[in-house]
C-alpha cells in the first residue's frame, strides 16, 4: 500500500496539469528503508511527448547522486497519461527499473478531474496497490 501525504498528491497532479499535453514525470524520495515518500522532485520529460516519458540521463544521474548522499531512495516514481487511464503501458512496465518503488500514474485526460493510482512493477509484472492519502 502507498501511504502518501495530500500535499505530495497535489504536487504531482499540479505538475501533470502544468506539463499537459505532454506527459509529466518525477520522483518522490524518502529515507532508505522507510517506504515513506518525503521529498518531491519534479523532472523534465526529455521526450517531450504526450505518449511517452523519459528522464534526462544527466538529470537522473545527478538525482541518484543526490539521493545517495542523503541516504534516500526513490520511494515514488510518477508520470502522467494525458489521454488514457492511469494504468501502466507495456513500455512503462518494461522500463520500470526500481522494484521497491511505488509507480504512480495520474491521468489528466479529463480537464475537470484526475485519476491517481499506484502500482508495483517487478520484472514487467504490474500489480495495482491501494493508496491511502494522509491529511
Account of the protein in words:
The chain is α/β, with parallel strands linked by helices. It has one domain (2-134): Cytidine Deaminase, domain 2. It is built from 3 helices and 8 strands, in the order E-H-E-E-H-E-H-E-E-E-E. The chain has helices spanning 6-19, 57-69, 90-95, and strands at residues 2-5, 25-31, 39-43, 72-81, 102-107, 115-122, 125-129, 131-134. It has a 6-stranded mixed β-sheet. A two-stranded parallel sheet has the order 1-8. Strand 6 (115-122) and strand 7 form a beta hairpin. The mean pLDDT is 97.
Keywords summarizing the entry:
single chain; alpha/beta; 3 helices; 135 residues; Cytidine Deaminase, domain 2; six-stranded mixed sheet; two-stranded parallel sheet
Secondary structure blueprint with pairings:
Blueprint (H helix, E strand, L loop, with lengths): L1 E4 H14 L5 E7 L7 E5 L13 H13 L2 E10 L8 H6 L6 E6 L7 E8 L2 E5 L1 E4 L1
Parallel strand pairs: 1-8, 4-5
Antiparallel strand pairs: 2-3, 2-4, 5-6, 6-7
Low-pLDDT parts are none
Radius of gyration (Å): 14 Å
Oligomer state equals single chain
**What is the ordering of alpha helices and beta strands?**
EHEEHEHEEEE
CATH architecture: 3-Layer(aba) Sandwich
Q: How much helicity do the residues have?
A: 10-25%
The number of helical segments is 3
Structural class by SSE content: alpha/beta
User: CATH class, please?
Assistant: Alpha Beta
Q: Overall pLDDT, averaged?
A: 97
How many strands, what sense, and barrel or not for the largest sheet?
Answer: 6 strands, mixed
GO molecular function: metalloexopeptidase activity; zinc ion binding
Keywords: Hydrolase, Metal-binding, Metalloprotease, Protease, Proteasome, Zinc
Protein name: Proteasome lid subunit RPN8/RPN11, contains Jab1/MPN metalloenzyme (JAMM) motif
InterPro entries: JAB_dom_prok, JAMM/MPN+_dom, MPN, VirAsm_ModProt
Amino acid at each position: 500500500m502507498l501511504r502518501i501525504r495530500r500535499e505530495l498528491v497535489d504536487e504531482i497532479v499540479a505538475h501533470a496539469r502544468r506539463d499537459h499535453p505532454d506527459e509529466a514525470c518525477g520522483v518522490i524520495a524518502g529515507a532508505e528503508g522507510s517506504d515513506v515518500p518525503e521529498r518531491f522532485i519534479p523532472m523534465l520529460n526529455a521526450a517531450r511527448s504526450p505518449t511517452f516519458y523519459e528522464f534526462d540521463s544527466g538529470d537522473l544521474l545527478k538525482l541518484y547522486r543526490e539521493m545517495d548522499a542523503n541516504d534516500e531512495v526513490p520511494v515514488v516514481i510518477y508520470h502522467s497519461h494525458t489521454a488514457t487511464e492511469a494504468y501502466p503501458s507495456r513500455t512503462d512496465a518494461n522500463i520500470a527499473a526500481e522494484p521497491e518503488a511505488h509507480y504512480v500514474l495520474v491521468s489528466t485526460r479529463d480537464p475537470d478531474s484526475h485519476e491517481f493510482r499506484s502500482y508495483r512493477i517487478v520484472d514487467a509484472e504490474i500489480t495495482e496497490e491501494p493508496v491511502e492519502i494522509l491529511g
